[in-house]
Amino acid sequence: MAEQLGGLADDRALLGRTSTAERVSDILRSRIAEGFFPPGTRLSEDSIGGALGVSRNTLREAFRLLTHERLLVHELNRGVFVRVLAVEDVEDIYRTRRLVECAVVRGLGAPPYPLEGPAAAVAEGQRAVREGDWKGLGTANIHFHRELVSLAGSARTDELMRSVFAELRLAFHVVDDPHRLHEPYLARNREILRALEAGDKAEAEKLLAVYLDDSLERVVEVYRRRVSAP
What we know:
Layout: H1 2-15, H2 21-33, E1 42-43, H3 45-52, H4 56-68, E2 72-75, E3 79-82, H5 87-106, H6 116-130, H7 134-150, H8 155-174, H9 178-182, H10 184-197, H11 201-227
Antiparallel strand pairs: 1-3, 2-3
Helix pairs in contact: 1-2, 1-3, 2-4, 2-8, 5-8, 5-11, 6-7, 6-10, 7-8, 10-11
């Protein structure tokens, strides 16, 4: 916990003089996504509030916002914890991803498409593989799908999927072998990117749908085994 709190103290400068619960929640959301606070971690109001230099009321409002996003859970007489997803939650996350991501690709207009974001995410993944950074590869994979969603040009869709992808990271943090979990999908990201570069959105949607179905099966298999372990 001391290391995590030290990192939060570094984030204190980001709050500036116009500190708000929303900005605190942004910081905590990022830290949860990065795995600084793994699923099941109890978040101390005193320690985190002190590290960020914010009031108890501000921090509680940030906790409330993240609870609404299903990243935190409040347990009566115990405190606030980073949420541990059920297998059913993981399945629902993937159903939502399939509905939204495939619809975004299907709804693209005439090519060429603005693919700088997805291309940069593929390059990010390739760098992570070269460096043996498998958690970094998982982050790059999520960045790729986030950039796909952004092709819709919809702030509401981006906001919806930001929450979905943050929840997905909770599942990834439970898995103990990010190398095996993430590496197979870098090549599939490239295939989707190539289809979009060629202007073939139908092929890209087909590849994406199979990708998400396969990923769901693999993640649920590993996740179920991990959460049921003693």
